[in-house]
Amino acid sequence: MTSAELPAVPPVLRFAPSPTGLIHIGNARTALLNALFARRGGGRFVLRFDDTDPERSRREFADATEEDLAWLGIEPDLVVRQSERLPLYAETAERLKAGGRLYPCYETAEELERRRRVQLARGLPPIYDRAALALTDDDRRKIEAEGRRPHWRFKLEAREMTWRDLVRGDSRVDASSLSDPVLIREDGSYLYTLPSVADDAALGITHVIRGEDHVTNTAVQIQLFEALGAPVPAFAHHNLLTAASGEGLSKRTGSLSLRSLRESGLEPMAVASLAVLVGSAEAVRPVETMDELAGLADLGAISRAPAKFDEGELDRLNAGLLHAMPFASAAPGLAALGIGGGEEFWLAVRGNLARFADAALWWRVVSGPVAPAIEDAAFARQSADLLPPAPWGDETWKAWTAAVKDATGRKGKALFLPLRLALTGLDHGPDLASLLPLIGPDRSRARLAGETA
After folding, report:
1. What is the mean pLDDT of residues 390-402?
2. In whole angstroms, how far apart are CA 30 and each of 53, 225, 238?
3. Are residues 196 and 255 in the same domain?
4. Is 97 annotated as a binding residue?
5. In this model, does residue 151 exceed pLDDT 60?
């Protein structure tokens, strides 16, 4: 978000998921862009659950969404549920009916499909022909006496709708090319558009940031705001994320869900960094704080092309965050894992971590028990005899290996690898100059003697 995009008054933004599954990284991209815009502008962020479909909406998915967003670092200022706001939508519908903008229709899906095919055959756009507007009151009574109930359409004004999109720039949709949208089903339930606009108006939403698949919806929604006499928010339609394969993401399939990324041990800021920066002019890199990320979330720099979310890139960002993480940030997580050693241990091992939980492996290497791997018992015994006296510090490893080199004539890999295998049981790991003082004299001697310690 550039300084030119910042509103003159504190903005109010919202993220409006349907609780029909676990949210994925594409949903998180939208949530982050809204939350960061609000943060940067000193405004408010609303989490609104679009849960008016009782058959598909689940409270457990809503709860999971709140938990996953909190893990990511997003804390809403307000949480609302559309299922608790039905009186507002009923009042909104009555206002639209009174204004002549919401009208009843009685065609079945089969009848509409037949008309669509006829229009296509005649070379006409397959939009609703507004036949219901010609029905008289007597016509409607007769139809309803047959058991039919109306669905309600919003009457669009046939004009070009234009807006300045914060991502796409000057945008336009010819409303005359659209069907009057159905806002209320035959059973009286609401489709997405009416509750969404009613809530945006009631909650004072100033900016709507969402995926580019909603661009056409914007023309309809602007007319709805105008019909209700409500301020029209600014719109921004960002590019969509796909999997690295190019496949679209879906809550239904669980593709790249935040829950799965969280359970894999990734750092939330690694996920947030990639979700926000990928597919933009900003270089993808690990960002340590949400405030810093808010400064990088430039809506005008987002590409128009779909962006691929590469889990390999996510691993790189995660490692970068861990390798630079100060001890003060790591300390609570280390304590939760039962890891001691303080700052000395953290600075020794952080450069070898791919996941934070990997620190537990190196804590076991330091504190034991470790089964040593002895390639040459005589060399190990001779090396043990040359261990310097305590206390040990940063120079102990250098002094010890110099003494072993002089005594045995070994150097390079032939010197260092057998010592690493004996001391850690592994052929790789953090710099032994840092690990050796943490392992300590007693465990070092025992391991060089072939003992599990």
Report:
1. 96
2. 22, 22, 8
3. yes
4. no
5. yes
